[in-house]
Design a protein that fits this description.
17% strand, alpha/beta
């Protein structure tokens, strides 16, 4: 690596595209090289949740890859990264990762992150959850993934949705030792 960290960002078709977009925008302020892959369903969700375009999201990343490009550098363990954040993460993608039966670059990259014992954080967006979802999350946790549903921290008294998203993304970035001054931290007594 050339002095800066590399982080893979995945965006899937679960509702909450704003988390992935904001993550990419914020990482532009950090010494982090971003590698983006967006699922087909993620592209569809962008169109529905708008007003962001797929091309604009791709422009936020240092590098982006086609969803089916399983020969991309991020599909190999020899491509060194700090890990991967999937924001939002659909149940389908979560399930592929948990089973190791990967059908796309996105799930393959996540599988590689796990096998290389790097940090994988999944902002799973689904509710309510049935027992199968919970078992899949347990499996992923046992494999080393961090399950991080984007639940708003209301104790911070957010003024708007952007504040809630920033708090969540700031806490996720804490897991990678990236502090952009976004987090309202609990005060010591």
């Amino acid at each position: 690596m050339s002095g800066e960290a590399r982080l893979i960002v995945g965006i899937t078709g679960a509702s909450g595209i704003a988390y992935g977009v904001r993550l990419l925008k914020l990482l532009r302020q950090a010494p982090v090289e971003t590698h983006l892959v967006v699922s087909r369903a993620g592209e569809i969700a962008m169109a529905h949740e708008g007003p962001v375009k797929v091309s604009d999201v791709r422009d936020l990343a240092d590098r982006w890859y086609k969803f089916d490009d399983v020969a991309a550098p991020i599909s190999s363990g020899s491509f060194r990264t700090q890990g991967m954040i999937i924001a939002p993460c659909s149940v389908r993608t979560m399930s592929e990762i948990a089973t190791g039966v990967t059908s796309s670059l996105l799930s393959r990259a996540a599988d590689v992150v796990l096998k290389e014992r790097r940090r994988l954080t999944l902002l799973v967006r689904e509710a309510p959850l049935h027992t199968g979802h919970l078992r899949t999350m347990t499996t992923l946790s046992e494999l080393g993934a961090i399950i991080y549903p984007p639940v708003p921290a209301l104790y911070t008294k957010p003024a708007n949705i952007e504040d809630m998203i920033d708090q969540t993304i700031g806490r996720v970035l804490d897991l990678y030792d990236i502090d952009l001054g976004l987090v309202s931290r609990w005060k010591d007594p």
